[in-house]
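Comment on this:
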Amino acid sequence: MSGLGTPSGPVLACGEVRTCLLPTRRAVDERTAVRLLRLRADEPVRTSRRPNRHALSPDVLTGVDCRLPTATGAKVRAVGTVAAHAGLVEGRVLQSTAYFSAPATGPDRRRPWGYYLVRPGLLVPVGRLPEKSVTEGFLTGHQQDRLDVGSIAESLLARISRRHDLLDHDAPLTTPDTSLRWTAAPADDGEPASALFTELGSGLRIVELRLPRGTTSVAAATLCEDLALHDWLLTTVGDKLDGLPPGSENQAAAMKVLRPLVDHLLHLWMPQARLDRALSPPWEELERHPGFSRQWNTMAQRIRDQLALRNVIGGDVPALS
Protein backbone atom coordinates (compact mmCIF):
# COMPACT_ATOMS: atom_id res chain seq x y z
CA MET A 1 0.00 0.00 0.00
CA SER A 2 1.43 3.39 -1.00
CA GLY A 3 2.03 5.91 1.74
CA LEU A 4 0.74 9.45 2.11
CA GLY A 5 2.47 11.98 -0.07
CA THR A 6 4.48 9.51 -2.17
CA PRO A 7 4.58 10.20 -5.93
CA SER A 8 2.04 7.47 -6.67
CA GLY A 9 0.32 7.48 -3.30
CA PRO A 10 -2.69 9.16 -1.70
CA VAL A 11 -2.66 12.71 -0.34
CA LEU A 12 -5.36 12.23 2.28
CA ALA A 13 -6.61 9.54 4.64
CA CYS A 14 -9.81 9.76 6.67
CA GLY A 15 -11.45 7.50 9.21
CA GLU A 16 -13.48 7.09 12.36
CA VAL A 17 -12.85 4.95 15.46
CA ARG A 18 -15.64 3.75 17.76
CA THR A 19 -14.64 2.57 21.26
CA CYS A 20 -16.72 0.80 23.90
CA LEU A 21 -16.56 -1.74 26.72
CA LEU A 22 -17.10 -5.29 25.52
CA PRO A 23 -20.56 -6.27 26.86
CA THR A 24 -19.55 -9.18 29.06
CA ARG A 25 -18.91 -9.73 32.78
CA ARG A 26 -15.35 -10.97 32.43
CA ALA A 27 -12.60 -10.17 29.97
CA VAL A 28 -12.59 -12.80 27.21
CA ASP A 29 -9.60 -15.04 26.63
CA GLU A 30 -7.56 -15.13 23.45
CA ARG A 31 -9.48 -18.02 21.91
CA THR A 32 -12.81 -16.23 22.39
CA ALA A 33 -11.33 -12.98 21.08
CA VAL A 34 -10.29 -14.75 17.88
CA ARG A 35 -13.79 -16.19 17.45
CA LEU A 36 -15.36 -12.78 18.00
CA LEU A 37 -13.14 -11.07 15.44
CA ARG A 38 -13.14 -13.74 12.75
CA LEU A 39 -14.82 -11.57 10.11
CA ARG A 40 -13.43 -13.40 7.06
CA ALA A 41 -12.72 -17.04 6.41
CA ASP A 42 -9.74 -16.33 4.14
CA GLU A 43 -7.69 -14.21 6.58
CA PRO A 44 -6.78 -14.91 10.21
CA VAL A 45 -7.25 -12.75 13.28
CA ARG A 46 -3.87 -11.39 14.36
CA THR A 47 -3.03 -11.66 18.06
CA SER A 48 -0.20 -10.46 20.26
CA ARG A 49 0.55 -10.78 23.98
CA ARG A 50 3.30 -8.20 24.46
CA PRO A 51 3.23 -5.61 25.90
CA ASN A 52 -0.48 -6.39 26.43
CA ARG A 53 -3.04 -8.75 24.92
CA HIS A 54 -4.42 -7.49 21.63
CA ALA A 55 -6.45 -9.09 18.84
CA LEU A 56 -7.07 -7.51 15.44
CA SER A 57 -9.55 -8.67 12.82
CA PRO A 58 -8.79 -8.76 9.11
CA ASP A 59 -10.10 -5.85 7.07
CA VAL A 60 -13.55 -6.08 5.53
CA LEU A 61 -14.29 -3.89 2.52
CA THR A 62 -17.40 -1.88 1.68
CA GLY A 63 -17.78 -0.78 -1.92
CA VAL A 64 -18.98 2.81 -2.35
CA ASP A 65 -19.82 5.12 -5.25
CA CYS A 66 -20.87 8.39 -3.68
CA ARG A 67 -20.05 12.00 -2.98
CA LEU A 68 -17.51 12.96 -0.33
CA PRO A 69 -18.33 15.50 2.39
CA THR A 70 -16.92 18.95 1.60
CA ALA A 71 -16.80 22.25 3.48
CA THR A 72 -17.69 24.26 0.39
CA GLY A 73 -20.57 22.12 -0.79
CA ALA A 74 -18.62 21.09 -3.89
CA LYS A 75 -19.81 17.85 -5.47
CA VAL A 76 -16.90 15.44 -5.34
CA ARG A 77 -17.67 11.92 -6.50
CA ALA A 78 -15.42 9.06 -5.42
CA VAL A 79 -15.52 5.35 -6.13
CA GLY A 80 -13.74 2.49 -4.38
CA THR A 81 -13.74 0.65 -1.08
CA VAL A 82 -13.75 1.68 2.58
CA ALA A 83 -11.75 -0.67 4.81
CA ALA A 84 -12.93 -1.57 8.31
CA HIS A 85 -11.59 -3.75 11.10
CA ALA A 86 -12.12 -4.37 14.80
CA GLY A 87 -9.68 -4.73 17.67
CA LEU A 88 -9.94 -6.03 21.22
CA VAL A 89 -7.60 -4.82 23.97
CA GLU A 90 -6.96 -7.20 26.90
CA GLY A 91 -10.23 -8.97 26.06
CA ARG A 92 -12.04 -5.98 27.55
CA VAL A 93 -12.26 -2.90 25.26
CA LEU A 94 -13.68 -3.21 21.76
CA GLN A 95 -12.82 -0.82 18.94
CA SER A 96 -13.95 -0.64 15.33
CA THR A 97 -12.36 1.54 12.68
CA ALA A 98 -13.51 2.44 9.17
CA TYR A 99 -11.08 4.35 6.98
CA PHE A 100 -9.98 5.16 3.42
CA SER A 101 -7.30 7.05 1.58
CA ALA A 102 -7.64 9.13 -1.57
CA PRO A 103 -5.26 10.36 -4.28
CA ALA A 104 -5.07 13.95 -5.55
CA THR A 105 -6.65 13.05 -8.89
CA GLY A 106 -8.46 10.18 -10.54
CA PRO A 107 -9.82 9.26 -13.97
CA ASP A 108 -12.21 11.75 -15.56
CA ARG A 109 -14.90 9.10 -15.69
CA ARG A 110 -15.89 6.09 -13.65
CA ARG A 111 -13.97 2.89 -14.36
CA PRO A 112 -15.26 -0.73 -14.07
CA TRP A 113 -15.35 -2.16 -10.53
CA GLY A 114 -12.29 -4.28 -11.16
CA TYR A 115 -10.19 -1.11 -11.32
CA TYR A 116 -11.16 -0.23 -7.74
CA LEU A 117 -11.24 -3.70 -6.19
CA VAL A 118 -7.50 -4.17 -6.71
CA ARG A 119 -6.97 -0.99 -4.64
CA PRO A 120 -8.48 -1.93 -1.24
CA GLY A 121 -9.20 0.94 1.11
CA LEU A 122 -8.75 3.53 -1.65
CA LEU A 123 -11.45 5.94 -2.82
CA VAL A 124 -10.59 7.34 -6.23
CA PRO A 125 -12.09 10.72 -7.09
CA VAL A 126 -13.66 11.30 -10.47
CA GLY A 127 -11.39 14.16 -11.46
CA ARG A 128 -9.56 16.31 -8.89
CA LEU A 129 -9.77 15.97 -5.11
CA PRO A 130 -10.13 19.32 -3.25
CA GLU A 131 -8.10 18.12 -0.27
CA LYS A 132 -8.68 21.08 2.09
CA SER A 133 -12.43 21.16 1.47
CA VAL A 134 -12.80 17.40 1.95
CA THR A 135 -10.69 17.47 5.13
CA GLU A 136 -12.82 20.22 6.67
CA GLY A 137 -16.07 18.66 5.48
CA PHE A 138 -15.15 15.23 6.83
CA LEU A 139 -14.21 16.57 10.26
CA THR A 140 -17.35 18.71 10.46
CA GLY A 141 -19.53 15.63 10.47
CA HIS A 142 -22.16 13.69 8.59
CA GLN A 143 -23.72 15.44 5.61
CA GLN A 144 -26.86 14.19 3.91
CA ASP A 145 -26.20 12.12 0.79
CA ARG A 146 -22.45 12.11 1.50
CA LEU A 147 -20.16 9.28 2.58
CA ASP A 148 -20.48 8.46 6.31
CA VAL A 149 -17.68 6.14 7.43
CA GLY A 150 -18.88 6.42 11.03
CA SER A 151 -21.94 4.35 10.17
CA ILE A 152 -19.68 1.64 8.73
CA ALA A 153 -17.61 1.55 11.93
CA GLU A 154 -20.78 1.51 14.06
CA SER A 155 -22.27 -1.32 12.03
CA LEU A 156 -19.15 -3.43 12.57
CA LEU A 157 -19.17 -2.67 16.30
CA ALA A 158 -22.81 -3.75 16.55
CA ARG A 159 -22.13 -6.90 14.53
CA ILE A 160 -19.53 -8.06 17.05
CA SER A 161 -21.40 -6.87 20.16
CA ARG A 162 -24.46 -8.91 19.17
CA ARG A 163 -22.58 -12.22 19.41
CA HIS A 164 -24.90 -13.63 22.08
CA ASP A 165 -23.27 -17.05 21.81
CA LEU A 166 -19.93 -15.63 23.05
CA LEU A 167 -20.99 -12.67 25.23
CA ASP A 168 -23.24 -12.64 28.29
CA HIS A 169 -24.18 -8.92 27.93
CA ASP A 170 -23.71 -8.40 31.67
CA ALA A 171 -21.03 -5.68 31.75
CA PRO A 172 -19.47 -5.00 35.18
CA LEU A 173 -19.94 -1.24 34.81
CA THR A 174 -21.75 1.22 32.59
CA THR A 175 -19.45 3.22 30.33
CA PRO A 176 -19.82 5.75 27.54
CA ASP A 177 -19.15 4.97 23.89
CA THR A 178 -16.85 7.41 22.12
CA SER A 179 -16.13 8.31 18.49
CA LEU A 180 -12.87 9.69 17.18
CA ARG A 181 -13.04 11.14 13.67
CA TRP A 182 -9.69 11.76 12.01
CA THR A 183 -7.93 12.96 8.88
CA ALA A 184 -4.27 12.55 7.96
CA ALA A 185 -2.26 14.44 5.35
CA PRO A 186 1.49 14.44 4.65
CA ALA A 187 3.57 16.96 6.59
CA ASP A 188 5.71 19.40 4.66
CA ASP A 189 9.38 18.53 4.24
CA GLY A 190 11.17 19.14 7.53
CA GLU A 191 7.90 19.54 9.43
CA PRO A 192 7.45 17.15 12.38
CA ALA A 193 4.37 14.98 12.67
CA SER A 194 1.59 16.69 14.60
CA ALA A 195 -1.98 16.22 15.84
CA LEU A 196 -4.67 18.80 16.44
CA PHE A 197 -7.00 17.13 18.96
CA THR A 198 -10.41 18.61 19.78
CA GLU A 199 -12.93 17.22 22.25
CA LEU A 200 -16.53 17.90 21.30
CA GLY A 201 -19.77 17.00 23.05
CA SER A 202 -21.64 13.68 23.04
CA GLY A 203 -18.49 11.57 23.15
CA LEU A 204 -17.11 12.92 19.84
CA ARG A 205 -13.48 13.85 19.27
CA ILE A 206 -11.82 15.05 16.08
CA VAL A 207 -8.14 14.80 15.20
CA GLU A 208 -6.36 16.43 12.27
CA LEU A 209 -3.00 14.75 11.67
CA ARG A 210 0.07 15.78 9.72
CA LEU A 211 2.26 12.72 9.30
CA PRO A 212 5.61 11.90 7.68
CA ARG A 213 5.47 11.31 3.95
CA GLY A 214 5.10 7.63 3.18
CA THR A 215 2.94 6.90 6.25
CA THR A 216 0.26 4.38 5.28
CA SER A 217 -3.40 4.79 6.07
CA VAL A 218 -3.12 1.63 8.22
CA ALA A 219 -0.40 3.27 10.35
CA ALA A 220 -2.52 6.42 10.67
CA ALA A 221 -5.51 4.32 11.74
CA THR A 222 -3.37 2.51 14.33
CA LEU A 223 -2.27 5.83 15.81
CA CYS A 224 -5.87 7.01 16.02
CA GLU A 225 -7.01 3.77 17.64
CA ASP A 226 -4.35 4.29 20.31
CA LEU A 227 -5.51 7.87 20.88
CA ALA A 228 -9.15 6.77 20.96
CA LEU A 229 -8.48 3.99 23.49
CA HIS A 230 -6.69 6.25 25.95
CA ASP A 231 -9.17 9.08 25.53
CA TRP A 232 -11.95 6.57 26.26
CA LEU A 233 -10.14 5.43 29.41
CA LEU A 234 -9.74 9.03 30.59
CA THR A 235 -13.39 9.77 29.86
CA THR A 236 -14.72 6.62 31.53
CA VAL A 237 -12.64 6.76 34.70
CA GLY A 238 -13.10 10.52 35.02
CA ASP A 239 -16.89 10.19 34.76
CA LYS A 240 -16.93 7.48 37.43
CA LEU A 241 -14.80 9.49 39.85
CA ASP A 242 -16.94 12.57 39.35
CA GLY A 243 -19.92 10.62 40.70
CA LEU A 244 -18.08 9.17 43.69
CA PRO A 245 -19.66 9.80 47.13
CA PRO A 246 -17.51 12.28 49.12
CA GLY A 247 -15.39 11.34 52.11
CA SER A 248 -16.31 8.18 53.97
CA GLU A 249 -20.02 8.46 53.20
CA ASN A 250 -21.78 5.46 51.74
CA GLN A 251 -18.76 3.16 51.61
CA ALA A 252 -20.62 0.36 49.81
CA ALA A 253 -21.65 2.73 47.01
CA ALA A 254 -18.08 4.03 46.71
CA MET A 255 -16.65 0.53 46.44
CA LYS A 256 -19.21 -0.30 43.77
CA VAL A 257 -17.59 2.46 41.71
CA LEU A 258 -13.94 1.89 42.62
CA ARG A 259 -13.64 -1.90 42.45
CA PRO A 260 -14.64 -2.30 38.77
CA LEU A 261 -12.17 0.44 37.79
CA VAL A 262 -9.35 -1.46 39.49
CA ASP A 263 -10.43 -4.85 38.20
CA HIS A 264 -11.21 -3.98 34.59
CA LEU A 265 -9.68 -0.69 33.40
CA LEU A 266 -6.67 0.66 35.26
CA HIS A 267 -4.18 -1.86 33.85
CA LEU A 268 -5.09 -0.86 30.28
CA TRP A 269 -3.17 2.43 30.28
CA MET A 270 -0.23 1.83 27.94
CA PRO A 271 0.22 4.63 25.37
CA GLN A 272 2.11 3.85 22.14
CA ALA A 273 2.19 0.12 22.89
CA ARG A 274 2.11 -0.79 19.20
CA LEU A 275 2.88 2.51 17.54
CA ASP A 276 5.38 3.12 14.76
CA ARG A 277 8.20 5.11 16.36
CA ALA A 278 8.01 7.70 13.57
CA LEU A 279 4.48 8.53 14.75
CA SER A 280 5.48 9.32 18.34
CA PRO A 281 5.52 13.15 17.95
CA PRO A 282 1.69 13.51 17.88
CA TRP A 283 1.49 11.52 21.13
CA GLU A 284 4.27 13.58 22.69
CA GLU A 285 2.34 16.70 21.73
CA LEU A 286 -0.79 15.40 23.47
CA GLU A 287 1.27 14.50 26.53
CA ARG A 288 2.32 18.15 26.78
CA HIS A 289 -1.15 19.56 26.12
CA PRO A 290 -3.72 18.60 27.29
CA GLY A 291 -1.49 16.11 29.15
CA PHE A 292 -3.08 12.66 28.81
CA SER A 293 -0.74 10.73 31.13
CA ARG A 294 -0.61 13.57 33.67
CA GLN A 295 -4.39 13.49 33.92
CA TRP A 296 -4.40 9.69 34.15
CA ASN A 297 -1.78 9.65 36.92
CA THR A 298 -3.80 12.20 38.87
CA MET A 299 -6.91 10.01 38.64
CA ALA A 300 -4.94 6.89 39.61
CA GLN A 301 -3.63 8.71 42.67
CA ARG A 302 -7.16 9.80 43.54
CA ILE A 303 -8.27 6.16 43.46
CA ARG A 304 -5.36 5.21 45.75
CA ASP A 305 -6.39 7.93 48.14
CA GLN A 306 -10.04 6.86 48.07
CA LEU A 307 -9.13 3.23 48.75
CA ALA A 308 -6.84 4.23 51.60
CA LEU A 309 -9.47 6.56 53.05
CA ARG A 310 -12.03 3.77 53.14
CA ASN A 311 -9.51 1.41 54.73
CA VAL A 312 -10.43 -1.43 52.38
CA ILE A 313 -6.98 -2.64 51.49
CA GLY A 314 -5.20 -2.45 54.87
CA GLY A 315 -2.65 0.05 53.68
CA ASP A 316 -1.31 -2.17 50.88
CA VAL A 317 -2.24 0.09 47.96
CA PRO A 318 -1.59 -1.46 44.56
CA ALA A 319 0.37 0.36 41.87
CA LEU A 320 -2.29 1.60 39.46
CA SER A 321 -0.41 3.85 37.06
Q: What stands out?
A: The radius of gyration is 21 Å.
